[in-house]
Design brief:
Blueprint (H helix, E strand, L loop, with lengths): L1 H12 L16 H18 L8 H14 L5 E7 L9 E6 L2 E4 L6 E3 L4
Antiparallel strand pairs: 1-2, 1-4, 2-3
């Protein structure tokens, strides 16, 4: 919950430092995979219960910081829907290795910037 609060605060008060924007990441070992799975499980569940808005970008920033402190390289991707829509829509997701950590099913989105 503290990581989500800090990510939300950074978005409101400062420009967040997004270190892993579209970077390539290495495969994960077993210890790293276990931590990534736990964070992927926890972040959206806690985000649904906090009293502030914790949308996809907040969740991605929180998970990125958490994994960065554990020494796990991540990639934050900003994308738009594959199909054209009347209103602009964007989505953020975080990957570690080949695992989508936050952002859910991203198969309907394309990255704004290719790595």
């Amino acid at each position: 919950m503290l990581e989500l609060a800090f990510a939300r605060w950074r978005l409101r008060r400062h420009r967040p430092r997004v270190s892993g924007l579209n970077r390539t990441v290495a495969p994960l070992d077993d210890r790293q995979s276990t931590l990534v799975e736990r964070i992927a499980f926890l972040i959206p569940r806690v985000a649904a219960r906090v009293p502030w808005r914790a949308d996809c970008l907040v969740q991605a920033l929180a998970a990125e910081r958490w994994l960065m402190r554990a020494g796990i390289a991540t990639r934050l991707t900003l994308g738009v829907p594959k199909d054209k829509r009347a209103n602009f829509e964007a989505h953020a997701w975080l990957t570690a290795g080949d695992r989508v950590v936050t952002g859910g099913d991203v198969s309907g989105y394309v990255p704004l910037v290719k790595p």
